[in-house]
Design brief:
The chain is α/β, with parallel strands linked by helices. The protein is built from 35 helices and 15 strands.
Length: 845
């Protein structure tokens, strides 16, 4: 009976309460709600009493203009006046003041802020307000790509902050506008293919094993649906068609798939309202965070102000690098890093881009070595081109860059627009400029045409083609032919724009992010140790990445020293020796089993009472509340006490008894007992000469295994050190595991290109297939990282026993395309037929 009953049904159900039924009707008639989708609900910025919002915005822009432009710069002055008039006319003055305010707060409190993001970098108002840090006139960035006076829509300035301190800015905004005026935004997790089967099975009362077996029939494929699973997996489809229980389960799953399953909190979105948020949207509590009950898209339709406070890990890396430099007396501001350092571009052109923002992938490095970037414009183009779609233009771009005579333009008017990209249409803004300069469109209308092209609105494009070529008096468009372009050239240019517009990149965004790219490259080129230490701090917990960066550091002459109980801090730090050579010291936070409280306690004791003399001294001085046996064991295995008078085997033999004795002494002191030394004035306990058992150190392989166990990486060496020369001399060798694992970068497939690689088999496990045969999973590691290998039944049967942990292996075969594998999403290699003493690699199915 879950339906709204009629008046007659209610009267029959409640014959003794007719008045209640009548009153219900009265209340229903009084309820009248009209949803307003036209009014823009922007909060008001609290301006000083003697100013209006517009006068304050104008004043701030003039102050910024004076600091950034010459007083007689007519082009910039005209652009600023135009933007202010548009912003004022569209009613967005308070929006810019709100953004200016919280960015000013962040910078005043030394919270890293990105130089810009998205189309907002095309605004000179944002540039003058220090919201963005890129001159839109110098780099030919268009305001109309951001705010179009011919298409009213809310501005959307997304801001990147330091990953670790982003919440401080959100807290500031909440405090300034009031907790009842600020809320974070909800997101909804949906029922995906495997998950919906398990959820439905649980509700229907199916056993876990039965449901799990059915769910595992769904292929591990990105964005897989039940419908596609029924198409590609014959076993799954057969069970659906022939087993009534499975049919019922999947049929119900098909109905529910994609529906919301649970609510979460948007990673960056924050809603700010002028009146209390409850006047506009319903709220709810998600894990102690107040969120809207409407998702992002609904809030935008309601014309409410949502801000994206994004955390960018690279900004934290830059901050940590500058902090490490500060410890050496080098004070720097990232905004002063030059964009035209030739040494930086030479490094990038060599493909030495490990750790450089947006340029790390192996495919990107190959592109850069072919491209040979020489300036900031080349970096903007590289970021924009290296994506599916635009990649088709890469050969033409490189050819034009190295051979200007090969560049051809359909009409000379294109030269001024496409010269920076050597005749290729790369940016959305170039499409807008072509439409404006060749056919006489306004920039506002040209953005509408760009959007129609990008969204493939064929009816709109058919009309605009005629307008572009021949013009339209009614629409106020002269047309390309009337402005001296031949009809054939105009048609060709329009066709090329249509083919490029769907994947042309936002130049404003590429340019803004290009600034971060060059900043990270500059820091790496001039302060490699500090930069790599900061990178490794950002990757704490990602052992394969840290292993790759350690290998990179050593290859460039920067030593990475094991953790040391007297010199290590919580994070990776940099130490300079007497000759000025800088080395990276492993951070204690990266040692498993050593918590942040323990690290803090150790550093405080070391600071107050001096360095620890040895492990016995350490055990007597540390606070047992934070440092227990497991903590000390982890540090011994990681090498924290190496070089302090005892080897690791001796340290392992004495630390437990020392900790126990110290604990007993402390308990005795608490209960009033006194030691013999207290009575006789003898030497204090700490002064007793340490006594270590006369035992040999562990074998080298065991020491390395301990380091790997505790830190996830090999520090003092690597089991493959004896094979470095052999690895380097392998013919056609792929540079390393890390590169092979990144071949899926940007969706690039390199199937068919043979590679030879080598490494250490660090683990091997077997698993039974559905048919009852055995298959194997091996993990291959080289000096840069790990990758998983699959041995399917036929191969495992023949070679599985030969592949054991700690076994060096040489592999030959083909890299793989991007896909998700049954291993759980890790990129895999499938070991196939033997290749001499090696194994061949084929596609994992």
């Amino acid at each position: 009976e879950l339906y709204v009953k009629s008046e007659q049904e209610m009267l029959a159900l409640f014959p003794d309460l007719p008045d209640a039924v009548a009153r219900t009707q009265e209340i229903a008639q009084r309820c009248q709600v009209t949803l307003d989708f036209d009014t823009v609900h922007l909060p008001k910025y609290p301006v000083p009493e003697n100013e209006t919002a517009l006068s304050m915005l104008t004043r701030l822009c003039e102050e910024g203009f004076a600091a950034r432009y010459a007083p007689d710069d007519a082009e910039a002055r005209e652009r600023l006046a135009f933007e202010l008039s548009v912003i004022s006319g569209m009613g967005y003055v308070d929006y810019f003041l709100i953004v200016w305010d919280f960015i000013k707060y962040a910078k005043d409190h030394h919270i890293m802020v990105g130089p810009g993001r998205g189309s907002g970098a095309g605004s000179i108002v944002a540039y003058c307000l220090n919201i963005t840090m890129l001159d839109p006139i110098k780099y030919n960035l268009l305001f109309e790509r951001f705010l179009n006076p011919e298409r009213i829509s809310l501005p959307d300035i997304d801001i990147d902050f330091c990953f670790e301190r982003r919440q401080e800015v959100i807290d500031y905004v909440t405090a300034k506008y009031g907790t009842d005026h600020v809320a974070q935004i909800i997101t909804f997790g949906t029922m995906a293919a495997r998950g919906v089967i398990r959820d439905v099975g649980r509700v229907l009362g199916y056993g876990y094993q039965e449901t799990d077996a059915i769910a595992k029939m769904v292929p591990m494929e990105l964005n897989i649906t039940l419908e596609r699973a029924l198409q590609v997996n014959l076993t799954f489809r057969d069970a659906y068609e022939n087993d009534p229980r499975v049919h019922r389960l999947i049929s119900m799953g098909l109905l529910l798939e994609g529906m919301p399953r649970h609510a979460g909190t948007h990673a960056a979105g924050v809603l700010i309202t002028g009146d209390p948020t409850t006047d506009f949207v319903p709220l709810q509590l998600n894990d102690d965070v107040v969120t809207t009950q409407y998702a992002m898209g609904i809030l935008e339709k309601l014309n409410l102000l949502k801000m994206d406070f994004l955390g960018l890990r690279t900004l934290t890396v830059i901050r940590d690098t500058l902090d490490l430099l500060q410890l050496q007396g080098i004070t720097m501001n990232p905004d002063t890093i030059p964009m035209d350092d030739p040494e930086v571009y030479r490094m990038i052109a060599q493909g030495d881009t490990d750790g450089v923002f947006q340029l790390e992938g192996s495919g990107m490095r190959t592109f850069l070595t072919n491209m040979q970037p020489e300036n900031f414009e080349d970096i903007i183009a590289a970021i924009s081109l290296y994506r599916p779609g635009p990649m088709d233009s890469i050969p033409r771009y490189i050819r034009g860059k190295h051979d200007p005579d090969s560049i051809r333009y359909e009409t000379p008017e294109l030269a001024d627009i496409l010269d920076v990209t050597y005749g290729c249409i790369v940016y959305q803004e170039q499409v807008m400029q072509i439409v404006r300069d060749l056919a006489g469109y306004s920039l506002g209308r040209s953005d509408l045409v760009r959007r129609a092209m990008a969204k493939k609105k064929h009816d709109v494009m058919a009309k605009e083609r005629a307008y572009f070529v021949y013009g339209s008096k009614e629409e106020g468009v002269p047309g390309a032919v009337a402005r001296g372009v031949s009809p054939r050239a105009a048609e060709t240019i329009f066709d090329e724009m249509v083919s490029f517009a769907s994947y042309a990149f936002n130049r404003s965004h590429a340019a803004a992010y290009g600034v971060i790219t060059v900043q990270t490259a500059w820091l790496k080129r001039h302060y490699l140790a500090e930069f790599m230490a900061a990178i490794m701090n950002s990757m704490m917990g990602n052992a394969p990445k840290i292993a790759g960066y350690i290998f990179h550091c050593r290859r460039h002459g920067v030593d990475v020293l094991p953790p040391n109980i007297n010199t290590s801090l919580g994070k990776f730090t940099v130490r300079a020796d007497a000759d000025g050579k800088r080395s990276i010291v492993f951070g204690l936070n990266a040692v498993k089993g050593v918590g942040s409280k323990a690290v803090q306690s150790i550093i405080e004791e070391r600071t107050l009472n001096g360095p620890f003399q040895d492990i016995l001294d350490f055990c007597r001085r540390v606070d047992p509340q934070w440092v227990n046996k497991r903590t000390v064991e982890s540090m011994v295995k990681a090498g924290c006490f190496d070089g302090m008078g005892a080897n690791r085997a001796q340290c392992m033999a004495v630390f437990e008894t020392t900790l126990d004795a110290e604990a007993k002494t402390r308990r005795g002191n608490v209960s009033g007992q006194v030691s013999l030394f207290d009575l006789g004035g003898g030497a204090p306990q700490a002064a007793i000469k340490p006594a270590y058992p006369a035992i040999d150190e562990f074998p080298r392989q065991a020491l390395l295994a301990m380091e790997k166990e505790m830190t996830g990486v090999y520090i003092s060496g690597h089991p493959l050190d004896d094979y470095v020369q052999a690895l380097e001399t392998l013919t056609y060798r792929t540079a390393d595991v890390a590169e092979l694992a990144e071949r899926e970068d940007a969706g690039i497939s390199e199937d068919g290109k043979r590679v030879v690689m080598g490494g250490l088999i660090v683990s091997m496990r077997a698993q039974t297939t559905k048919k009852g045969s055995m298959m194997g999973f091996a993990v291959l590691e080289d000096l840069t990282g790990q990758i998983e290998c699959l041995l399917f039944p036929r191969v495992y049967e023949r070679f599985g026993r030969e592949i054991t942990p700690d076994m060096p292996q040489r592999l030959q075969g083909n890299p793989l395309s991007s896909y998700t594998c049954v291993c759980g999403g890790i990129r895999c290699l499938r070991l196939s037929k033997p290749f001499g003493h090696a194994r061949a690699i084929s596609r994992c199915s």
